[in-house]
Amino acid sequence: MTEQDKKRIGKFLSLVLRHDPAKIELELDENGWANVKELIEKCRKHRYHFSMEDLIEIVETNDKQRYSFNEKRNKIRANQGHSIDIDLGLSAVEPPEYLYHGTATRFLSSIMEQGIVKGSRRHVHLSKDKETAIKVGARHGKPVILTIMSGKMYQDGILFYQSDNGVWLTNYVDVKYILKQI
Length: 182
Fold this sequence. Notes:
The chain is α+β, with helices and mostly antiparallel strands. It is 32% helix and 20% strand. The protein has two domains: 3-78, RNA 2'-phosphotransferase, Tpt1/KptA family, N-terminal domain (Arc Repressor Mutant, subunit A); 99-179, ADP-ribosylation fold (Alpha-Beta Barrel), CATH 3.20.170.30. The radius of gyration is 17 Å and the shape is globular.
């Protein structure tokens, strides 16, 4: 499987596992898990051909670690970023003192007026390091990195979760918790 094939299939998996499983008539359970055999078969019907070995390679080599298998590798799900109603079963955890949010400069004025909102997603995504936040921000244009006072948010009673791939999740970041721009 070429890198181009992996990228193309990975994007399609992201679509069906995070946003639109109905596109291929795929059923996700309440925790976002899909049956692997069913996923492979239904993707084939939509001209996305890959084997179980290919899927394992896509999951293991994805730079953002977007997907996870269960222990038996007979189920798969996206780790975060869903716009559909699922429960990832994450427990609230205390975040580090600072987290980072990568965005494009064109969104900065809106963020500084209304805070960081989750939009169509289930959570706001935050990174533990600036390098990851820069990559996220660069996907949307010229990046700007915001330092978030996540420790203060937590002290103020705001819940945080950490997905299986290390992304920090919360419902909203008020402007008063945005410390600075990098």
